[in-house]
Amino acid sequence: MGHGHSHGPTAAEGTSAAGRHRWRLAVSFGLVLAFFVVELVAGLLSDSLALISDAGHMAADVVTLGAALVATRIATRKDTTGRRTFGSYRAEVFASGFAVLVMLGVSIYIAVEAIGRFGSPGEPASGVMLVVGAIGLVINLISIALLRAGASESLNVRGAYLEVLADSLGSVGVIAAALLVRFTGATWWDTGIALAIAAFVAVRAVMLGREVLAVLGQHAPADVEPREILEALEALGSVEDVHDLHVWQLTSGMNVATAHVVASPTGARDGVALREASDLLRTKFSIAHATLQVETGVENCEGADW
């Protein structure tokens, strides 16, 4: 009975998808942090709930981007304990989960504050809202352009990207609220749009949260179908059967698999089955790390029963 393992380019380089886009996170973090301070002060001075809610969302951006940056740094640290056999790459997933909690907290705060303001006589300063909202939109669009490239590759970057994307819509909401308050004189527009921002943030948080739970629950990656892997491996001439297949995601861009492969008589010679199966997983299914136990038909497999 033999076994082997293979490493894709990602694992070999020791760099996760988020790590490759760390500089984008850093630039976006600096921009958003600077504007958050400006928007919070402006919101308090203008008494605009839409502006304050967007500043709260900006605060979530700051926390999310900061957590993403810290996670990418932790993920690249070498294990000195000998116990973290998979390294610290899961820190990026935990950062995404933290982003979900922050987004939900911000949306709840905005909703509670908005409901409490219905019927209040205060009138926000629409001019300040308009200027700050426009500046915020520009900052968010720059951050979106920076993070978009990594959002499709990394769950960690995607969490930050969705935060900034949601906040860009929040800036649009602030601009709309400013214009509506100015031209209609109805101050409830400020509160109503703040509620809409809160609802949008909550929906995006739930969607990202489902992705985080799928990774932590060791589900098969979204773009990988286990049945297709089984069929592709069994179609190899050097393989007779495949069982005990497990596929999961360590972090974004790092897919992992284990399997028992029953080699054909020709596949058992010179490690042909192991080599072909490893190459297939790496090239066709982007499995960064595959551990395969190669067996022959005459051996009894005593694998786990779960």
UniProtKB/TrEMBL annotation:
Question: Mind telling me which residue stretches traverse the membrane in this protein?
Answer: 25-45, 51-72, 93-112, 124-147, 159-181, 187-207
- Span of domain Cation efflux protein transmembrane: 26-216
Q: How does it sit in the membrane?
A: Multi-pass membrane protein
Gene3D superfamilies per UniProt: Cation efflux protein transmembrane domain
Q: Name one Pfam family in it.
A: ZT_dimer
Residue span(s) of domain Cation efflux protein cytoplasmic: 223-295
| Keywords for this protein | Ion transport, Membrane, Transmembrane, Transmembrane helix, Transport
Which GO molecular function, any one, fits this protein according to its record?
zinc ion transmembrane transporter activity
> What subcellular locations does the record give?
Membrane
Q: What is the similarity comment for this entry?
A: Belongs to the cation diffusion facilitator (CDF) transporter (TC 2.A.4) family. SLC30A subfamily.
Q: Name it.
A: Cation transporter
Q: What is the source species?
A: Dermacoccus abyssi
